[in-house]
């Protein structure tokens, strides 16, 4: 274990062996993997949300989500009374989602590689904003066309308890405290693992203030814009 002294000095350079902890077959937590790029990621996020604002989507059951969301990349994930789906356009503006910044793509592919997935080519990045008390209930990410690509999930800002369960909703989830710069990757046998986020505790983060932002990178695949309901 590194001392906090070393962490401070070398916080930008996590050593691969130290930053990697397996969670389940095909799933890993990369501690601090995105920390060095966090300020640049945030600058890009602030710019993206000017073009595609964060919004509270409504679940198919009619409830507004506590997490505010937007997207960048070729496809964006969304939800409304008809179901969950990917679209090529932002339904608010009717315009294509903003392009995925190069630094997002580089980070996501590097994290996937570090977790054992060398061919990840994300075409969708969901941007989730959690204010205190916001949460995400246990779910599977299953609106993508193929399940062959992993999910890469980047945490910024306030810490959150990430719930990582098994392939069945009733499997008791692990509780992982995710901090600023942590990245979780799950694919292969864990690709359809149930996961969620416990209600965000109030707090203050030097860079992001009183919020957590999560970036979830996925390969949605083609043709989902018109047929993604499930
Ligand atoms: O915020 C997180 O850490 C998880 C987000 C998530 O599971 C999702 O957007 O599908
Ligand atoms: Fe998810």
Topology diagram in text:
Layout: H1 4-10, H2 16-19, E1 20-24, E2 27-30, H3 38-51, E3 68-73, E4 76-80, E5 83-87, H4 102-114, E6 124-130, E7 136-139, E8 151-157, E9 160-164, E10 174-178, E11 183-186, E12 195-197, E13 212-218
Antiparallel strand pairs: 1-2, 2-11, 3-6, 4-5, 6-13, 7-12, 8-11, 8-13, 9-10, 9-12
Fe (ii) ion is lined by residues 139, 141, 195.
Walk me through the structure.
With 230 residues, the protein is α+β, with helices and mostly antiparallel strands. The protein contains four helices and 13 strands. A hairpin with a 2-residue loop joins strand 4 and strand 5. The structure holds 2-oxoglutaric acid and fe (ii) ion. Fe (ii) ion (FE2) binds at residues 139, 141, 195.
Quick summary:
17% of the residues lie in helices and 29% in strands. It is α+β, with helices and mostly antiparallel strands. The chain has one domain: Jelly Rolls, CATH 2.60.120.590.
Classified in CATH, the superfamily is Alpha-ketoglutarate-dependent dioxygenase AlkB-like
- What structural class should be given to the helix and strand makeup? alpha+beta
Beginning-to-end CA distance, first to last residue? 45 Å
Tell me which ligands are bound. 2-oxoglutaric acid, fe (ii) ion
What does the average pLDDT come to?
91
Q: Round the Cα radius of gyration to an integer and report it.
A: 17 Å
Q: What's the assembly state of these chains?
A: single chain
Characterize the biggest β-sheet.
7 strands, antiparallel
Strand line-up across the major sheet:
1-2-11-8-13-6-3
Figure out the total of helices: 4
- The proportion of residues forming helix, as a percent range, comes to 10-25%
| Unreliable residue stretches | 1-18, 224-230
What's the CATH C level?
Mainly Beta
How do the helices and strands follow one another from N- to C-terminus? HHEEHEEEHEEEEEEEE
**Number of folding domains?**
1
Number of strands: 13
Domain Fe2OG dioxygenase: 121-221
GO molecular function: broad specificity oxidative DNA demethylase activity; ferrous iron binding; oxidative RNA demethylase activity
InterPro entries: Alkb (IPR004574), AlkB-like (IPR027450), AlkB-like_sf (IPR037151), Oxoglu/Fe-dep_dioxygenase_dom (IPR005123)
Cofactor: Fe(2+)
């Amino acid at each position: 274990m590194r001392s906090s002294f070393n962490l401070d000095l070398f916080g930008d350079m996590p050593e691969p062996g130290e930053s990697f902890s397996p969670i389940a077959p095909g799933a890993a937590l990369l501690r601090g993997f995105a920390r060095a790029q966090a300020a640049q990621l945030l600058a890009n996020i602030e710019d993206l949300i000017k073009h595609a604002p964060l919004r509270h989507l409504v679940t198919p059951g009619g409830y507004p989500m506590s997490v505010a969301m937007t997207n960048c990349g070729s496809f964006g994930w969304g939800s409304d009374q008809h179901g969950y789906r990917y679209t090529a356009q932002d339904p608010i503006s009717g315009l294509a989602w903003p392009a995925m910044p190069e630094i997002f793509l580089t980070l996501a592919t590097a994290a996937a590689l570090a977790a054992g997935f060398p061919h990840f080519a994300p075409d969708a990045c969901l941007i989730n904003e959690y204010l205190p008390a916001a949460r995400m209930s246990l779910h599977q990410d299953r609106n993508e066309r193929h399940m062959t690509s992993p999910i890469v999930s980047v945490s910024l800002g306030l810490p959150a308890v990430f719930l990582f369960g098994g392939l069945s909703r009733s499997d008791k989830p692990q509780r992982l405290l995710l901090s600023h710069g942590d990245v979780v990757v799950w694919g292969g046998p864990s690709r359809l693992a149930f996961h969620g986020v416990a209600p965000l505790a109030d707090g203050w983060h030097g860079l992001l203030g009183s919020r957590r932002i999560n970036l979830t990178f996925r390969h949605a695949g083609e043709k989902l814009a018109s047929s993604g309901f499930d």
